[in-house]
């Protein structure tokens, strides 16, 4: 997921995507612990996507606070 895609999402879409990614991260941690993980690079990718979404949410919250 690119940063430009994240900025184009609505707040609800960001929340839904964040929940989905956190579930995937949880499942990947279990796979890693049991030695069943196929794509180890996906762990890093999911972690970074979560960070992108959280950054976008925080930026929007700060902009909304500054506007009011």
Task: Describe, in plain words, how this protein is organized in 3D.
The protein is 84% helix and 0% strand. The longest helix has 27 residues, at 41-67. Helix 2 (11-34) runs antiparallel to helix 3. It is elongated. The model has no long low-confidence stretch (mean pLDDT 95). The N and C termini lie far apart (31 Å). The chain has helices spanning 3-8, 11-34, 41-67. The chain has one domain (3-67): Orthogonal Bundle (Helix Hairpins). The chain has three helices and no strands. By secondary structure, it is mainly alpha-helical.
Short description:
This protein has 68 residues and is an all-alpha fold. Helices cover 84% and strands 0% of the residues.
The number of domains: 1
Low-confidence regions: none
Q: What radius of gyration results from the CA coordinates? A: 14 Å
Helical amount: over 70%
Secondary-structure class: mainly alpha
* Discrete helix count: 3
| CATH architecture verdict | Orthogonal Bundle
Say what the CATH topology is. Helix Hairpins
Average of per-residue pLDDT values: 95
The gross shape turns out to be elongated
Distance between the termini: 31 Å
Number of strands: 0
Approximate strand percentage: under 5%
Under CATH at level 1, the class stands as Mainly Alpha
Assembly state of the chains shown: single chain
């Amino acid at each position: 997921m690119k940063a430009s895609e994240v900025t184009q999402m609505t707040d609800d879409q960001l929340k839904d995507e964040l929940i989905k990614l956190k579930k995937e991260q949880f499942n990947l941690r279990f796979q890693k612990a049991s030695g069943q993980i196929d794509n180890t690079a996906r762990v890093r990718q999911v972690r970074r996507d979560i960070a992108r979404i959280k950054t976008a949410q925080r930026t929007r919250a700060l902009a909304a606070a500054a506007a009011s």
